[in-house]
Structures are given as structure tokens and as C-alpha cells.
Amino acid sequence: xxxxxxxxxxxxxxxxxxxxxxxxxxxxxxxxxxxxxxxxxxxxxxxxxxxxxxxxxxxxxxxxxxxxxxxxxxxxxxxxxxxxxxxxxxxxxxxxxxxxxxxxxxxxxxxxxxxxxxxxxxxxxxxxxxxxxxxxxxxxxxxxxxxxxxxxxxxxxxxxxxxxxxxxxxxxxxxxxxxxxxxxxxxxxxxxxxxxxxxxxxxxxxxxxxxxxxxxxxxxxxxxxxxxxxxxxx
Length: 234
What we know:
By secondary structure, the protein is an all-alpha fold. It is built from eight helices and no strands. α5 (about 105-135) packs antiparallel against α6.
């Protein structure tokens, strides 16, 4: 069962965004570039800027250590900084690099690139290693069971749904010359989904399933809002 769950997880992390990319490229010129810019927006904003600051710079300040003792403050700080970093990178990419590529399908490709590369770089490799460990007789060393692997796969689906929705919101705002208000909306939604990872378990006793239900709700809401904007425009 663990092997099956790992294969499902790999299919979600790699197969889902790649299949979506192929589908969109067949139907929309420029979808491939939108996917690449979305992926780069995540890599630059998170892996090259925000994460190094959180891990290498802020631990040198006393206020950061003290803040970690307060779940509400720490959770909102992490959520807000993630939102500011990623949604600003999204806005810059859409505003400066996707000129003329502002259709619904371009937004879908951009969001799949952003959420897909996150899954490919942060979650997918661990699942691939797990498969290798199982096939080489080292299953006992893999630090997860089949249920937690499936939960992680589901979480990636929710995360990709959120990134697609947020990308559609930012793209729609830029296209309609209402970029600031839709950027703010995306930042707020991003803060809500990320802050919950710290706040829900520490203040409300929520387990992993509670956290994932929240991620599904916010991710679904972001996707629905993004699609609604383009549907209304049509």
C-alpha cells in the first residue's frame, strides 16, 4: 500500500502539472512560457529570497525568536511574508513578462507552473526516494506511512488549486487595471492558508486532517474566485 501511495504522490507532484501544461499548450499559444514564468516566480520569491532570509538572517534577531513563542503572531508573520513574496513575484511576472498573454488559459498555465514547481522541488523528490527505498528493501527506513503520503499528495492538489486561483486573480487584476486590489486579495488568501499551518494545531488542537480541510477550503475558494472573474469578464 505504501508503494501505491508513493506512486500516486509522484503522479500528483509531477504528472498533474505536466499533463496540465501539455493540455494547455495544445490549446493556447504562449502557455508554455506562462508556465515557465510561473515556476520562476516561485523559485525566485521563495527559494532565493524568502526562505534564505527566514533561515539565515532573521534567526540573528531576538524579536524573531520571541515571536515564535506566540502562535498567532508567528503564524500570521509566516503567512503574510509568504503572501507578500509570492504574490508580488506573481504580479511582477504578469505585469512585465506576460504582456499580451492574459487569457484564462495563460493564467491556468502560470498557476500550474507556480504550484507545480513547488511540488516538484519540495515534495516529489522525497516520494521518489521512498519508492527507491521500498524497491531496495529499505521500507523500514522510510519515515512515513501510506496514509500520510496520500495526505501529502492531497495537500499538493489543494496547493496547486490555490496557486492557480491566485494567479488568475492577479492576472485578472492587471488586465483590468485593478492590479492593486486583486494583489491585496491574493495576499490575504495566501496569508490565511499558510498561517493556519501554525495557528490551527497550536491554538485549536487541529490535526493534519483539519489543516488539510482548511487548505482545501481556501484553495478551492481562491480557484473559484479566479475562475469567476474570467467567467464574468466573458
